[in-house]
Amino acid sequence: MSTTTPQMPEGGPPEPTAGQTFVQRLAVAQDWRSAILIPFLAVFTAFVIGGIIVMLTGVPFTQMIEAYVALFKGSVGSIKAISETLTNATPLILTGLSVALAFRAGLFNIGGEGQLLIGGMVAVVVGFSFGGLPWIVHLPMALLAGMLGGAAWGFIPGFLRARTGAHEVITTIMLNYIAVLLVQFLLTTTFFQREGRQDPVSKNVEPSAVLPQLLGWINPALRVNLGLIVALIAAFVINWLLFRTTLGYEFRAVGANPAAARYAGISVPRVYVLVMVIAGALAGLAGANQILGVLGRATPGFSGPGLGFDGIAVALLGRSNPWGVVAAALLFGGLKAGGQEMQVAAHVSPDLIGVMQALIIMFVAAPALITTLYRLKAPSTSAQITKGWAS
Amino acid sequence: MELELRGITKRFPGVLANDDVSLTARSGKVLALIGENGAGKSTLMNVLSGLYQPDEGEIYIDGVQQVFDDPGDAIKAGIGMVHQHFMLVPVFSVAENVVLGVEPVKGMGVLDRKKARIEVREISERYGLAVDPDALVEELPVGIQQRVEIIKILLRGAKILVFDEPTAVLTPQEVEEFFGIVAELKGRGATIIFITHKLKEALAIADDITVLRGGKVVGNADPATATPEDLAAMMVGRDIDLTVDKTASEPGQDVLTLNDVTMLDDYGRPLLRSISMSVRAGEIVGIAGIQGNGQTELVEAITGLLPIASGKIEVLGEDITKASPRRRHRIGIAHVPEDRNEMGMIGSFTIKENLVLDNYYAEPFSRRGVLNDGAIETAAEQMVEAYDVRPPMIDNTGSALSGGNAQKMIVAREFSRDVPLVICAQPTRGIDVGSIEYIHEQIVRKRDEGKAILIVSTELDEIFALSDRILVMYDGQIVAERAAGETTPTEIGLFMAGRTA
Fold it and tell me: Fewest C-beta in 10 Å: which of A180, A354, B211, B429?
C-alpha cells in the first residue's frame, strides 16, 4: 500500500533473546520502561492501594491524607527527618548492591542477612579489640573486617554452587539460619559478652572504630554517619566494576547467557565464587556499618532485623543497577523514617509501610499488572510470538 | 476448502510486515509459500492462525469472510497448524497428546482412555498415518512425532493444514514419508500450505508456489516449469548464484589433527567413536551428516567445551587435548557455533560488546582488567562495516539484529582474528539467501588466505558448495571420506543414512 512506510530491516525481524535466565528477566531492566517507568508507577500504585487497604480498616479519607503528609514530613520534612532517611538507607544501599550484583551474574543471593550478621560480628571484634589505635587505622580495619566476614559467608554458597551445583537459593537460606543462631550463641560467650551482663550483648566498640556522624556539629541527634559515604563509594565502585572492567563483563555475560560465557572461555564456576564473595563483602560491610555507625555494639537483632532481606526488595526495585539501588534504598529508608512520624502524627499503623513495600515489589516483579492497569502498550511482543515459525 | 487472503496488511512500529498480500490455497492442492527470513511468512501465518489481527484485508474460506479474534476462532474455522517445533508432551502417550485440550471424559471428569485411543486409531487409519496410540511420544522418532501433530489437528477438524518448515528436522527418508502423507491428505481434499525455504522441496511437492519478499507477494510460480534459480531470484529480487566461485585448493601442512578421539555421555555411552581426521592449511573440510550424529560433540571436543574420554587433539603440532577453551582460542581456533542465540552471542549485550565476546580480556580491548571502550568501539565499527552487519549501530543490542545479521556479526568477530583454524558449525542455518551468499564468500576467502577450515552442516548443498574434502558422520563415527570433486550428493546421502563405505 503506502510506499513511504519503513520497510522491513534487512534480513528480517529481530530474533528473540535466548538463553536469558529467570533471574535476569526478573531483576535486570532491558529498556527504559522497565528501568524507570515501571518502578515509578509501582511506587505510585502501592501508595494508592496501601491507602485503600488502610481505609478499609475504618480509617477516614482525611486521616489517610494526614498520614501521607506525615510520612512525607517524617522522611524529608526536616534535617532530622532527612538524617533518619539517610541513616536507614545506608545499610539498604549495601545489601541492595549485594543482591543486585548477584542478580547481574544470574545468582539469587538470599543470604544477605547471614552475610551481614557474620560481617557485623567480625567487625565488632575488631571494633572492641585494638583499643588505642588511631581511628585512621582502626576504623578502616574494622570496616575491612566486616567485609571479610561477609565475604567468607558468601564464599560458601558460591563455592558449593560452582563445585557441586547446589543451588544458592537453598544454601544461602540455610546459612542465614546458621548465622542467626551463631550470633545468639557467640554473644553469650565470654569473648564477646560485655562484662557484668547476662543477656547477649557484646562489648562496646572503641571510639576509634566508630563511624563519625556527618552532621553531629549541627545537632548530636542527627545520626547520619560516614557509613553513607562508604555506601555511596561502594555503589560507585560496583557500577565501575560491572560496566568498565573485564570482571564485570564476565559477571554480566554469565548472568545473561551462561552458555555463551562458556563459549567465550569464561570460567563460569570461578565467576560464581567471585560474585558471591563480593556480594558477601557488601552485605558484611552493611553489618559493619550497623555496628560501627548506628549501634556501637552487637545484639542478636542488630540486623534490623531483616536488612539483608530488604536488600532483595531494594535490588528488585532498583532493577539491579547500582544507582537504581541507591534510589530504591533512599525510598525505602524514607518510608521507614516516615512510618514512625505517620504513627505519631496521624495514628496510622507503620505496618502500612510493610504493606506498601510488599506491593511495590509485587508490581515490579509482575510488570504485567502495571502495564494492564495503566493500559501501557506492551513492548514488541511480536518477536516472542513468532518464535518457532519461519526459520 | 478453499482459503483466500485478500489485501492483508499488517504493520508493526516501524515495520510493514505484510503489505497487501493476496493469495489463494485451493482445495485438494498444496500451496508452497516461500520467501527469505523476514519476508513476512511468519506474520502472515500468525494472521491466519488468529494470533494477529490484520490492519487491512480479509480472509475468506469457501467464499465466506472470516474474522479471527483469537487462535480458537481459526481452529473452529478449520485451520490447523503444524509448528516447526512440536507442541507435544514428551511423557504422555500418543493418544493422550492427541486429545489434550479436547479430552473425551467419562463421569466426574475422568479421562476416557479407551475412547481417546479409538479416536486416534480412526484418524490414523483414515489418513494412513500409522502410529501406535499407546507409545510414549518421547520414545518416537521425529518423523512419527510429526504424524502425531498432524493427527492432533485433524482430530480438531482441520481442513486447511499449515506446515511450517516441516522437513527441517527430518531425515531424507522421513521427508519421503512426509511427502507421502501430504499426498494422502491432498487426495482426501485437504488444503495444504507448506512454508519452506527449501526450493527443491517446494518444487517437488507443490501445486502452486507463492513467493513473498519484503512483506509483499512478488509473484506466483508454476512448479512444473520453474527452476530453483528462478525462485531464488524472485525471493531475493536479483539473480542469486547458489554455487560458490572457488579455485582448486592447495592444501599445506596439517593444522588440526584428531587421533582416535572418543567421547562418552554421562551414562558411558559413546557419542564419538575413535575419530581420526585432519584439516590442512588452505582447505575446507566439510562434515556432512544428519543432525545428532555427533557433529556437535566433535566441534565441542575440538573447541574444549566438552571433555573427551580418550584420544589426542593437536593444533599445529601442539597437544591441546587438555587445554581450556580460552587456551585453545588463543592458540588459534576461531569458532562460529552451531546455535548463534544460545551460544554465539548474548542477546542483551550491545553489538560492540558481542563483537569482543571472546577477546574482551586481551589488549587493546582491555588493559589490566579495565575495558578500553575506545578500542572496542573502533574495532566494532570496523567489523560491522567490513562484514556488512545491518543496521550498523554498535550500541544496539544483539537481539535487535535479524538472524542473518546476527550471524554476520558472529562471523565478523571470529574471522577478524588472524588464526590458523576456523570452525564453522551450521554457518548459514536459518538465515536469508543474501547473508548465506556473503558468509560463503567470506569462508572461501579465509581458505584462500591459507587458513584451515572445518565446516559442519546438515545442508548437503552447503557442504558441496564449500568443501574441498567431505567427511560423513553417522552414529558418532566418520563413515566416509571423499574428495569433493569425486562424489555426488546421492552417494554422500547414502552414507548419511548409515550405509558404510
Answer: A354
pLDDT score at A6: 38
Distance from CA of B128 to the nearest CA of A (A): 27
Which residues in chain A touch residue B17, judged by CB atoms under 8 angstroms apart? 8, 13, 382
Give A104-117 as a DSSP string.
HTT----THHHHHH
A28 touches chain B (CB under 8 A): yes
Domains of chain A listed by start with CATH number: 24-375 (1.10.3470)
pLDDT score, position B460: 80
A21 pLDDT tier (thresholds 50, 70, 90): low
Residue B175 has pLDDT above 60, yes or no: yes
Q: Residues B127, B267: one domain? A: no
Q: Which domain holds residue B17?
A: 3-236
CA distance A379 to chain B (A): 10
Produce one character per residue of A140-150: b if its CB has 16 or more CB atoms within 10 Å, e if not: ebbbbbbbbbb
In a domain? residue B140: yes
Interface residue B368 vs chain A (CB under 8 A): no
| A350 vs A343: CA distance, rounded Å | 6
User: Both B21 and B151 in a single domain?
Assistant: yes
**Dist. CA B347–CA B98, nearest whole Å:** 35
Q: Within this chain, do residues B324 and B437 fall inside the same structural domain, yes or no?
A: yes
- Prediction ipTM score: 0.83
Q: Is residue B338 part of a domain?
A: no
Q: What 3-state class would DSSP assign to B134? A: coil
User: Which among A7, A247, A390 has CB closest to B37?
Assistant: A390
Inter-chain residue contact B370 with A249, CB threshold 8 Å: no
Integer Cα distance of A207 and A139 in angstroms = 9
Do the Cβ atoms of A244 and B14 come within 8 Å?
no
**Residue B299 is assigned to a structural domain of this protein:** yes
HSE-up of B238 (CA within 13 Å, CB side)? 5
CATH assignment of the domain containing B22:
3.40.50.300
B355: in domain: yes
Tell whether B104 and B155 lie within a shared domain: yes
- Give the pLDDT confidence score for residue A384 in this predicted structure: 35
- Kindly determine whether residue A264 and residue B195, on different chains, have CB atoms separated by under 8 Å: no
pLDDT in tens, A35-59: 888 888 999 999 999 999 989 988 8
Q: Quick one: B306 and B426 in the same domain? A: yes
The pTM assigned to this predicted structure is 0.77
**B425 and B414 belong to one structural domain:** no
Final residue in a domain of this structure, among B172, B201, B236: B236
**What distance in Å separates the CA atoms of residue B379 and residue B396, rounded to the nearest whole number?**
16
Q: Within this chain, do residues B376 and B454 fall inside the same structural domain, yes or no?
A: no
Q: Do residue B325 and residue A263 have CB atoms under 8 angstroms apart?
A: yes
**Which three cell numbers mark A249?**
563483563
Q: What is the mean pLDDT of residues B194-214?
A: 86
Q: Which residues of A touch B39 (CB under 8 A)?
A: 8, 12
pLDDT (mean) for B28-53? 85
Phi first, then psi, for residue B261 (nearest 5°) are -85, 130
Coil, helix or strand for B423?
A: strand
How many folded domains does chain B comprise?
Answer: 3
Q: How confident is the model at residue B409 (pLDDT cuts 50, 70, 90)?
A: very high
Cβ distance B84 to A389 less than 8 Å, yes or no, reads: yes
